[in-house]
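Listing S7. Sequence submitted for prediction.
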Amino acid sequence: MASSSPRLQGKTIAVTGASGMIGVYLCRSLLAAGARVVGVVRNPSKAAFLADEGVEFRQADLTDPAALEAAFQGCDAVISNAAMYVASKGFGAWEAHLTANVEGTRNVFEAAHRAGVKRIVHVSTFGIYRWSLRKPMDEQWPQLDGQRRKGGTYRASKQISEDVAWQLARELDLQLTTVRPSGVYGARDPNTMAMVYKALKLPVLVLPSIGFPLVYAGDVADATAQALVNDAAINQAYNVGGEGHQLSSFLRAVVRARKKGPAILSVPLPARIRTDNSKARRDLGFSNRDFDEALAEVIAEDRARR
């Protein structure tokens, strides 16, 4: 992960969901920027290695406003990162996503306000947009209708979540920035990389390959930390996404990084989903490193963990 300049020296930043995949990268980017980092999690033992790196843990659940308020005491800013992402459409999935992603966001923002914290960065997703194959989606791109459950449980609940974030920022006079990553991959990844590792156990992999914007979690984290440095980011939303490379290109890069894997046969399709990241490049110094560089870090960390 690229180191941020130490311009958060003396600041205490709380990160909800610090033990999750993106949360680990957020903590490390903040530490590299000189911040004191408070990881707000349900289970500190899940990422005990972060304590050795300098993260202080405070235990709180998204459904427990009092515990969240206590966890945010003495903090200069909160990164609202914790969220539920489960692909299932089964019984109870919608209610579970609403509880975590919508009510959880409300609880975090109201608890931060009661704790005297004004600055919040909310980790949203490019999934809130009505995806298009026509041209890159910028921050003003039309959003799906979360209330009508468009886009599935995760995308719909995150669209409502970001609406709630902006509403509370106005009502409580909070200084809000939202970042909207595209498909994120990284070490300790229970979603993208877990599916990739499983697919690469096949002797040959044949697939149609569309362009999809995959982004390295370390680059999302560095841009999010930079949002706390640059006051121009207050009251702004930012796409932090990949370039829309063919999925087969990503899989081949994983094979190269692991130095093993199947032959990958693909039929590139003339379709790709893209995000316009120019605003984040300008204000947050965002860049998404190439697959080979990022995956070398991901594979090395996953192997060391095993």
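Caption to Listing S7: primary sequence and predicted structure tokens for the chain studied. Residues 12-185+215-241+273-288 form a domain with the Rossmann fold fold (CATH 3.40.50.720). Confidence is low (pLDDT under 50) at residues 1-5.
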